[in-house]
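Revision sheet: structure tokens.
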Amino acid sequence: MNNFSDISEQKLISSVPKNFKRVLFVCLVLLVLCAIASLVLGSRVVRLQELLDGLFHPDAESYGANIVRKRVARTVFALCCGAALGVSGSLMQSVTRNPIADPSILGVNTGASVFVVSGIAFLNISAAHQYIWLALIGAAITAVFVFGIGSMGRGGATPIKLVLAGAATSAALSSVVSAILIPRSYVMDQFRFWQVGSVGSGSWSVVLTLAPFLVTGVVTAILTAPALNALALGDDVATGMGVRTGVLRLISALAGVILCGAVTALAGPIGFIGLLATHVMRLVLGPDLRFVIPMSALSGAIILTISDILGRLLGSPGELEVGVVTAFVGAPLLIFLAIRSKVRSL
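Predicted:
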């Protein structure tokens, strides 16, 4: 592929969306409000003084201040995971030209889970950085497998074939995960949150482990956005504009796999964030990926943080894992999109 900036200079979609500044402002305000709500709300509501002590007085040892400090790391982790999944969903929808592509729908999350659970059960792996590398391998292999199956037969990789291939692969791999976990109670007890996804394990060490993968994936996505705009016009048109479509798809898909694989390794298979975040941004901003991709990061962070807050409130005094909440919201959305768009390609 030629320099990505060459495509940008061609100004495939030259104008900034009219409402971009307004949408950006609203998203930033919501992000701040969600972060504050995540620190305050939960099985125990934190008072204002406890919030201030936890944030600005490290020597404060009150129970509420300690809760705030723990929630800070959890909130940052939720924001990072949501951003990663939002961008991953945008990339997968663009690469496959499938409006309902998402790491969970295409089975990529489940593939990552299989490899990590296998590593825990058979290789006694226990470090977060080891989880991530296994998850990336599993996510990559699953993505290639699903795309290969969906590309077979007449018509190539159509949206409906990719979704069916992803659903079948996800179901099969979920059975493999269950087969590994059920007879091994120690694995089941330690990583049972994987079955639904949770950000409850968020800590600063986990955030630092995720950070390089998040930065790599997001930067790659932003750099490839102009060329992905060309790809949306069709392979022939994109090739005529100087885009090496095969290399572009490989790089973009790899960035998406890195993002969703890293999140799955650390938080479990959280579904529908990429689908919901990207569609919201496409609805309000239009199809230009130069704006949709970074804004999907913001909207994904907001959606996942809100879901985590709802899980804590609805499950009080315990906790309802965030994967349950996102599935409850995302499944009806998927049905609505399938009916309304008739699963047409982008």
